[in-house]
Amino acid sequence: MIQLIFIYPDGQEHEAYAQNGQTLLSAAQEAGVAGFVAECGGNCTCATCHCYIQAEHAQELFEPSEDEQAMLGFTAEPREQHSRLACQVMVEYFMDGMRVYMPERQI
Ligand code: FES
Q1: Nearest CA to 72 among 39, 98, 46, 99?
Q2: Could you tell me if residue 44 is inside a domain?
Q3: Which run of H or of E encompasses 18?
Q4: What's the pLDDT at 61?
Q5: Distance 35 CA to ligand 1 centre (A)
Q6: Atom of ligand 1 nearest to the CA of 36
Q7: 45: in domain
Q8: Residue 107 falls within a domain, yes or no?
Q9: Is the minimum distance from the CB of 28 to ligand 1 under 6 angstroms?
Q10: 20 to 30 A from 49, CA-CA: which of 31, 38, 67, 93?
Q11: What's the structural domain count of the chain?
Q12: Rounded to the nearest whole angstrom, what is the distance from the C-alpha of residue 42 to the centroid of ligand 1?
């Protein structure tokens, strides 16, 4: 299992465990992480699964697709350098221990 640590805006941490190849969104939902709305159900058409990836890991992730890039323009909280849509990030072994920061709001 791959450990992920979701950090809420108030600094509280919520641990989750993912399988290799599972989406970040799915892992968060299974672990009961609060804060993702995911209106479109993971289809990259709502931008309500926005999160900020820990800088050290963000560089290792594959580049966002054109669709993800486009949707990142519609997040409720400002897009930052390491912004991603959790439904588009596949968890892999090298992400073990990765910290994922939640935005204040998704809508
Ligand atoms: S769940 Fe809608 S864009 Fe990710």
Answers
A1: 46
A2: yes
A3: strand 13-18
A4: 93
A5: 13
A6: 1
A7: yes
A8: no
A9: no
A10: 93
A11: 1
A12: 4
